[in-house]
Each structure stands twice: as C-alpha cells, then as structure tokens.
Amino acid sequence: MTLATATKRSARGAPGKRPSDHGAWFLVLPALIPILVLSVGPLLYGIALAFTDSQSGRTAPTQWIGALNFKDLLHDTLFWDSFRIGLLWAFGVTVPQFLLALGLALLLNQNLRFRWLARALAIIPWAMPEVVVGIMWRLVYHPDAGVLNETLSTFGLGEGKDWLTGTATALFAVIVVGVWAGMPQTTVALLAGLQNTPRELHEAAAMDGAGAWRRFRTVTWPAIKPIALAITALNFIWNFNSFALVYVLTQGGPGGRTRLPMLFAYEEAFRYGQFGYAAAMGCVMVAVISVLLALYLVGRLKGDDET
Amino acid sequence: MMRTKKSTRAAQYVALAAYLVFLAFPFLWLISTAFKPARELGSLHPTWIPEDPTLENFRQAFDEQPLLRAAGNSLIAAVSAALIAVVIATPMAYVMARHRTRLAKAATGWVVVSQAFPFVLIIIPLFLILKNLHLINSLPGLILVYVVWSLPFALWMLVGYVRAVPAELEEAAAVDGASKVRTFVSVVAPLLAPGVVATAMFALITAWNEFFFALVLLKTPEKQTLPVILNRFIGAEGVADLGPLAAAAFLATIPSLVIFALIQRRITGGMLAGAVKA
C-alpha cells in the first residue's frame, strides 16, 4: 500500500477504494457466500417455485405451470379471508403499538421517579421467547385459572369469557398480545429520538406561551418523525409476517378467525405439502406489503413537504 | 428546566403506573402460576400469591418433557450460530463501512430488503435445499439457517460500530506498510471487540428464542429445541398441567432476560448508530 492511496482514503468514504481490491474480497467472501447460497438464492428459488406445481413427497418431476397458482389464489376465498385477517391484525397491532409506545417514551423522557423500573420491565417482552409470551398470555386468558376473568369478576365487570376460543374475542385477544410484545422496541427507538430533540427549542416555545400540544406538534414531532416513520413501517412488516405468537396462542382458531397469512401458508406448505401454491401466497404477501409501504412512505414524505 | 404543574405531574405518575402494570402483570402471573400446586390451579378463584407455594411443578416439568436435552440443543444451536455469524459478519461489516463500492451498497440493500420478506418464501426453498444436503432434522442445518437469518441485523449493528472506530488509526497502520487484512486483524478488531460481543449476544438470544425455523426443520423430539418442546407441551392441556407448563416457560426465559439485561444499552445504541449514519 503506497502513501498516496493511504492519504487518499483520509476523507472518510472517499472514492479512493477500488472494487478490485483483493483484500476487501477476502474479507467479504465468508459472509457473502452464505448470503448468496442461503438467502438470495432461496429467495429467487422461492419466487420461481410459485410458478411450478411443486409438492412434497411426489415422485413425478415438478413442472412449470405458469401463473396457474396465482389464478387459483384469486378464487381462494379462504386465503383472502386470511389475508383480510392479516391486515386487520397488522394495523390493529401497529397503530396502538405506536401510540402506546409514544406515550411511554414521552413519559420516560420526563424527570419522573420509577423511570428505571419502566425501563427494566420493558426488557421483559423484548427478550422473551415468543413461545413463552404465547404461553404466558394463555395463562392470563385461561377461562378458569386465568387472572383476567378473575379480575373482571372481582370488579363486577361481567362473566368469565373464553377469550382465545370465542369467535368474537379471539382476534382482539391476540392483538392485545401483539401490542404488548412489540411495544418495548418501539418505545426505545422513539425515546432515543426524543433525547435528540433540542431542549432549547422546547423551552423557547414554552416561553412564547405554546401549550403542551403545540409544543409537541411544532418541536417534538418534527424531530422524531423520521424515526417514527421508520419504526412504524418496520413494525407493520414484522407484524404482518409474524407467526409464532398467534400459532402458540390459537393455532389460527377458532374457525380460522385468527389464521394469519403466515399460518395459512405454513399449513399449506408443511401440512398439505403444496410447496408451489404456498410460495405463490408468499409472493402475493410481499407484493401487497410493498405496495402498501410505498404508498405510506410516499404519502408521509409528501406531507413533510407541505408543512 | 421547565416547571411542570402539580396536576400534570400527578397525571403523569398515574399514566406511568398504568404502563408498569400492563408491562409486568402477565409475567408476574406466569411466575405465580409456576409455583402453584395443582389444587390451587383448579380452584375457581385463583389468587396472585400462591397460598401454598411448591416446586412440584418444576420437578414435573422435567419429568414429563425432555427439557434438559431441548435446552442443550438450543444452547448448541444458539452459541454456534452466534459465533459463526459474528466471525463472518465482522469483516464484511468492515468493508461495508469503509468502502463505498457497489458491493457494499448491494449488501446494505439486501440487509433492508431481507426484513420485508415473509419467512414462508424463504423456508420452502431452504427446506428443499437442506433436504438435498441431508440437513433436515439436524442441528447443523438449523445452525446454517440461523447464521444467515441473523446476518442482516449483525451487519447493521457492526457497520455502526466500525464507523465509530477512527479511520486515522488505519491510515497510520497502512503507512507502516500493514496489509488490509493485517490492519483489520490487529488494529480494528480489538477496538470493535465490545460491539462484536454485544452483537454475538443478541444473535445468541434471537436463536435461543427462535421458533418457526426450528418447528419446520426439526422433526424428532431428540433434536428439537426448547421453544418447539415448550409448544408440544401445550397440546391438550388440562388445568393440572398449567403449573409445569408455566414452570418450564419461566425457566426458558431466564437466560434471555439475563443476557438481554446485560447488553441492552449497547444494542439500542448500536441499532440507532446504524440507523442514523446508514
């Protein structure tokens, strides 16, 4: 390495590096190969599978069948029911998750006692295995041994319900668990954003007699907006693609009322062995999510320009 | 500092208390259930504090399910996956942070895009590939999947940590005639160590907690990891089995909670460092 290239690099990220650098390739390859073989490859393979009649345990060779899977999907009312439930779940979890997390982050940003306790407790849902979260809430919701029914009856708030197996309550019950499980990450991200907002600006606005709501709208919100956008977009994707929580809580029941698209596709692939058809479902899920996210992000960013 | 009105303060404490209750009560109930004898679990009016606390549930949990073997499988899978992931991700993160090549950009793009794809689109082809390699129902197969699955987050974190290492140090090493690999190993790597450890710990917890891939890839109970075994536990549960179920679930959580408590600050810091500068 010559002195010339060394100084060229001093401005960080300067285009002094050539792609043909062998040392760089040597450093990249150990990760790049698994990524290509076990992530990028399977992804393309998965998309290709959606256009085949691939099934598990079949002896006849797999054949290309064009868009037949997608045509079938179009008329598969069970899948679209599941898709609708998936969207309800994703919105139903993401929106309260964000609002509750924002509230908690604003509180934790204040000089309150017991803040440390809230921070410590927020670790629990974050670190816990999803299966344990599911088991734990089954115990809470349990019709006989659960704490929820017992508390409700103590306060005279109605009869005990079987929350997770009642057709009317199941989706709502799993959404509450989803909100609980995802709130901490969102809170931590928003709190970090809040701690970057300029204090002076806040104080100046207060001096000018701006109320709490106005201060929030004109000072706090603009400062945390990028983080808020990013975290809600990610939450929405993660929630839409979630599996373990609902699988443990209800297995998609009662009568498919909580059968998220991931659960549906999982059953299609690994219970009935319809690999091609399940892959097509995966493709549709990706496509719809991408469109929704694009609309959301474009809309939000435009809103940014107007204000 | 701004003054806050007393009534506002009071309202804030009420709200904080509500959050504390919401966050804590399911976990407290799990612990309570884990220590209750079967007789109390069957009672019509369950209490918060077990009247007659017992360790019987823990004994029964170990008797009925192969918890120790499952925990062993989980530990092997999680530790190997975490180690392999950081060993291969650190050099790559270094290149991504320091070089603005097309490769680095593509890698960053992959990190973002890989978050959006539903697992089902990955798991079917992975299942077929691993089946051809005879790696279904085997821990090595699961470990491979965990490595790749934890790479996006590991890269994201590590790129942030690399950026925090001053580039001047490397220039000095380069001036002294050290090769790129040498510079990385003897100058950058030691400074990265705390970040690498935190990333490895995080990868370890996510693998320890992981359920979906393990459910699909591991077929026999001898190979299954703790979350899968816990899920089998649920099956047809009578009220009497709730105790052992709670006890096992409680034990499975402890490692995650302890490790996470240790690294939490570093993780949130790294996440945002990656986010702000990427």
Describe it.
The complex is a heterodimer of chains A (307) and B (278). Chain A is mostly helical. Chain A has a single domain (68-306), classed as MetI-like fold (Orthogonal Bundle). Chain A is built from 13 helices and no strands. Chain A has helices spanning 3-8, 22-49, 68-74, 77-108, 115-127, 130-141, 147-154, 170-195, 199-207, 212-240, 244-249, 261-270, 275-306. In chain A, helix 4 (77-108) packs antiparallel against helix 10 (212-240). Mean pLDDT of chain A is 84; it is low at 1-20. Chain B is mainly alpha-helical and 278 residues long. Chain B contains twelve helices and no strands. The interface between A and B is large, with 107 and 105 residues.
Topology:
The complex is a heterodimer of chains A (307) and B (278).
Chain A: H1 3-8, H2 22-49, H3 68-74, H4 77-108, H5 115-127, H6 130-141, H7 147-154, H8 170-195, H9 199-207, H10 212-240, H11 244-249, H12 261-270, H13 275-306
Chain B: H1 6-34, H2 38-41, H3 56-64, H4 67-98, H5 102-113, H6 119-132, H7 139-163, H8 167-175, H9 180-209, H10 212-217, H11 226-234, H12 242-277
Q: Could you provide a short overview of the structure?
A:
By secondary structure, chain A is an all-alpha fold. Chain A has 13 helices and no strands. Chain B contains twelve helices and no strands.
* CATH class value of chain A: Mainly Alpha
Helix content of chain A: over 70%
Q: How confident overall, as mean pLDDT of chain B? A: 86
H/E series of chain B, N to C?
A: HHHHHHHHHHHH
As a whole number of angstroms, the C-alpha radius of gyration of chain A is: 25 Å
Structural class of chain A: mainly alpha
**Major sheet of chain A: size, sense and barrel closure?**
none
User: How large a portion of the residues of chain B is in β-strands, by DSSP E?
Assistant: under 5%
Number of domains of chain A: 1
Please identify the oligomeric state. heterodimer
Most extensive contact: A-B, 107 and 105 residues
Q: Which regions of chain B have little confidence, pLDDT < 50, spanning 5+ residues?
A: none
CATH architectural label of chain A: Orthogonal Bundle
Distance between the termini of chain A: 51 Å
- In what range is the share of β-strand residues of chain A? under 5%
Global shape of chain B: globular
Instruction: List the total number of helices of chain A.
Output: 13
Question: How large is the radius of gyration of chain B?
Answer: 24 Å
